[in-house]
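Sequence in, structure out. First:
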Amino acid sequence: MSSEATTSPIIPLWRKRPLTKPPPQQTDAFHALLAQNKSFASTTQSKNPDLLAKCAQGQSPSTLWLGCSDSRCPETTLLAAQPGDIFVHRNIANVITPHDLSSQSVIYYAVNYLKVQHVVVAGHTSCGGVAAALGNGVVGGTMDAWLMPVRELRSKLLDEGAFEGKDDKAKAVLLVEANVKRGVEVVRRNPEVLRAMEERGVKVHGVVYDVGTGELRELETGEGEEGLKKRLENFKLG
């Protein structure tokens, strides 16, 4: 027998650890959505095999939807529409102003390039932005500046006495409606929209979506020929 001492082989530490099965991975919300997308793609290909191929060739939506970012108000779903039907811009409390480059760029593209026939300004019940504008608390970040146009509408309704005798829910609905109507007015004053209304009959609508019933309600926003004539005189460019 050799007089040299025998040495044990060096075993890496990771091999000394007991082998255990990794815990089962729980599907998070994002990956659940990815799985649902697979189902959507498969079902759509089965039920309407030409739809997605048509979408891949381009878009020609009939309608521009200017709505709120609220997760409860997905326009394609609540309108039972298909991909390619609706061109969309959404932001907090569906605030539409002539100074917001994002919404104005969307309107320009939709009217001039996509040639939409309808523009819809959509508000909804239980709107968090409207609720914040009804109160006097600080929301924080950029939100207080963003909601200032809605607060200004609230001030106008207060001055007019529109809130007298109304509970908080009724006040919120009135402010939602006023915000939609103001959005419609801003859109109708857009020079590109004015031109499209005059030349090819583009129409601008205001609606309120009830998140509790799933139904849309169109608001009365008509102005007649005289109103259109006045807007053309004051706001049409070129």
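Second:
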Amino acid sequence: MAHAEGLPRLEPAMRFLIEIAAPIAVGSASRGTPLSAVSMASGTAVSHPTFKPVFDAVFEGGGTDYIRNDPDGKHMRLDAHAVMRDKKLGSLVYVHYTGVIGITPELGLVLSGSPEAKSTEFGDAFIHLTFETGDEKLKELETGVFVASGRFVVEEGKPTTVEYRVSKVVV
């Protein structure tokens, strides 16, 4: 099927792998839905072979994902912040993403640390990312519109990892 004129499409951009810690329940006395904070202990972001600018970064000093569950318990709302350092350039890049994750029984096992937890499939976690940097070579990251689909990766003896496949929205 031909691409309809003017409709956006997705161009593969990068892959994020983020090791996360257990959620910390902050609570909320006034909002009605409790706030949790999840530390992003470490992570990487590597550009797709066809994406420009080339980007190969590690998380600098971790990051935090602030999460609120919807009152009906069916979705989580993400608000994450982190700083990354490009390995080759040494440049810092701030990444901010927001998103929605469908809370499935499989995800419940992952988030509770259950020994029965298994990796989840793509299709229930979606985010929108923005970037900010002081490096002209990476400035193009600031002007793009980026979205991603994510999943939780569970491997015995390793921290839980979130994998995001990031795409740039283009026409």
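Remark: The mean pLDDT is 94.
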